[in-house]
Amino acid sequence: MSDPAKIVAVLGEQEHAGIYPLYQSPTLTIINFTWAPYMSLMPHNHQMFSVVGIYSGREDNIFWQINDRNLAAVGAKSLGAGDVVILDKTAIHSALNPIGKMTGAIHVYGGDFFSPIEPRSEWDHETLVERPWDVERVKSIFRDAEERFYSSTIRSRFQRETIIHHP
């Protein structure tokens, strides 16, 4: 992540939110994540180490821990272009893109992200109830976040134009 501009030059500008695998094997997965503006992802674990490097935008992480069978926030870290965070196998975190543009991040996982050996979990944003992790649900969160952002942007532009043209 020492030169985020080179990563953008190779991968291109982020146009659509999503999970874009760059390499996948049973022992290593490298993914280009593109976060829609203002999107958030529920608390989840990976059951493998991960390294997250931001090459454009921002990513805010909340770190969680299970205390007495309840999930509790225990820390946070905000990442910008060029920043890297290492998460161990036991880490639980949630992530948020807090800005009004796409965020690009390279994630490296010590295993197969899409078919992990150990079952993964995610926790509901509101209730913090644990459920099995579902990659298809996560992919839909990325799609829905992009759609919401662009729908609200178009609606806002239309409303501004209506006000300007119809006093």
Task: Walk me through this protein's architecture.
By secondary structure, the protein is an alpha+beta fold. The chain is built from two helices and eleven strands. β1 and β2 form a beta hairpin. The longest helix is centred in the last third of the chain and has 31 residues, at 135-165. The radius of gyration is 17 Å and the shape is globular.
Topology of this structure?
Elements: H1 4-11, E1 18-24, E2 29-35, E3 40-45, E4 50-56, E5 58-67, E6 70-80, E7 84-87, E8 92-96, E9 103-109, E10 121-123, E11 130-132, H2 135-165
Antiparallel strand pairs: 1-2, 2-9, 3-8, 4-7, 4-9, 5-6, 5-8, 10-11
What key phrases describe this protein's structure?
five-stranded antiparallel sheet, 2 helices, 11 strands, 167 residues, alpha+beta
Major sheet details: 5 strands, antiparallel
Roughly what fraction of the amino acids lie in strands? 35-45%
Question: Could you spell the SSE succession in H and E letters?
Answer: HEEEEEEEEEEEH
Q: Which blocks of ≥5 consecutive residues have pLDDT under 50?
A: none
- Walk across the major sheet and give the strand order: 1-2-9-4-7
Oligomer: single chain
How do you describe this structure in short?
It is built from two helices and eleven strands; from the N terminus they run αβββββββββββα.
